[in-house]
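U., I forgot to send this yesterday:
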Amino acid sequence: MAVQQQDASAALRPSSQRPVPLRRRADLVVEEILYRDVPFPVIKDPVGLKYYRLQPEQYGVLNLLDGKRSLQDIRDDLQAQFPTVHVTPQDVQVLISDLHDKGLLVSERLGQGESALKRHREHSWQKIRQTALNPLYLRLPGWDPERTLARIEPYLGWAFDWPFVTMFMLFAASSWLFLAMRFDDVVHKLPEFQQFFGWPNLIYLWITLAFAKILHEFGHGISCKHFGSDCHSMGVMLLVFSPTLYCDVTDSWMLKNKWHRIFIGAAGMYVEVILAAVAIYVWYWSKPGLVNHLALNIFFVSTVTTVIFNANPLLRYDGYYMLADYLEIPNLRQKATKQLQKYFAWYCFGIETPDDPFMPTTGRHWFLIYAIASTVYRWFVLFAITMFLYTVLKPYRLQSIGIMLAIGSISAIFVSMGMNLYQLFSVPRNDPINKVKLTITILVCLGLVAGVLMIPIPWYEEAAFYVEPVNVRHVYTTVPGFLDEVHVEPGDEVSEGDLLVQMSSPDLIDRRDELRDQLEIQKFEPETYRELDDLDGMELARQRIETIEEQLADVAVQLGHLTISSPVAGRVVEPSRTKRATIESMEERLPTWHGTPLRKSNLGAML
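Result:
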């Protein structure tokens, strides 16, 4: 009876005063990492191999959860730890819910397996969705390489010490200097595009790409092990349908030295740079053959993939993680995307989204610039890959595969954008959408779509062609006139400067005579103004004389063009014939000459 009364009294207590049936997992690994000189706890889940950076307040809540404290107790203790932060029991409840979603808490209540299974299914579905949205970057399940790396590191770890890094970088620099000094010779030795990307070298390219990327990923893994972190995931990845490896070195987030984290991110490119340097010398000094082709392939895949993909911070590869570690801003791309979405939601729809507590308070415009630049560059890379596949597959009449891949990738991008918009509109909010901004946004989008649809896309070309002799020199009339004399016939041999055709232009002759008369009259004007002491008038009169003289010179040049001479020595070839006008066309306008201008019957015709 007493137990029942105790249970009844506990049930009557407010929810904020009841014990929270959750406690911190005992197996969590915690490291305090400095980000912009501010210590943040980084939590490692050793079972799920997930890593989280928490706010100090959220980490305080995690430590206070022991299964006995209530929301009010946790709130009071948290307020005592952080007196400058105002915290309510509702805030504590939100923080606990987030910690539970991250899998950092355990509960003694029954039925927790279903919740864990639900989170696992959601995580698996998210992976499948990301794979479907990026068909050119397929990441398959892998294995734990920890034992393999632990055996290799004692033999190869020395390559990641600074003296050897300096030595290898000097060796790589010497190879690039070697290329620069022999640039013309190197260009001459390179094969043609279709030869390099055709069969069977395309198969060798795939093999060398896989080989280079295996060494690339082992570079990440060995360096991660060398600097004291673990690597528990390595597997096969299809990069543009080429087999490669991937190596998960997320455990490097637990390293306190950011330069070690940066070097782990650069280790794969470091290995490829050394590999490319060796390949340069082997390719240049070896004779044509299999070794020569493989060396060129290794140099190509190591250099191009490093520059376009790995080293570029605009894509989420090695360069991105190096930049994030250097700036000490984890999840740089997510923060930049959120900042872009925040501006987009406000300026396009009038929706105000909550601020990210981890977002730096200064330099937020750089996040916006980064988000836009990375988006544009991803579109550029997608277009470049599509054009590359189209060009390579076109000789085999398989270009439709490249087009289908492009359509699939673009569709995936638009689906992702649509899902982001759906999430934006589905979030509960108090303020309504700004109808004016929404209307303007819709009109701008419709205008952009209409503009894109109006761009003509030539799917085929139709063009006439004709055959002409080698070194032919066409002779044209540059001034309209009447055909007076024809001094040659088709097949005649002529020398340079021989007269071919003499034309006349009554209009030009009349214009010349008119200008001459004007010039004679104008010559008396300067003297008249001089006698009147009108210097300005005299200057204007002289300028008019100069203008008339320039016009006369121009008319003289045009009259000279009426005499058409042979530009070179050779044989006269009859030009293309002009068809005779039909009876129907002669009923609408007067007939013109037909045949060729060299026919005597066309004397007097207007050309």
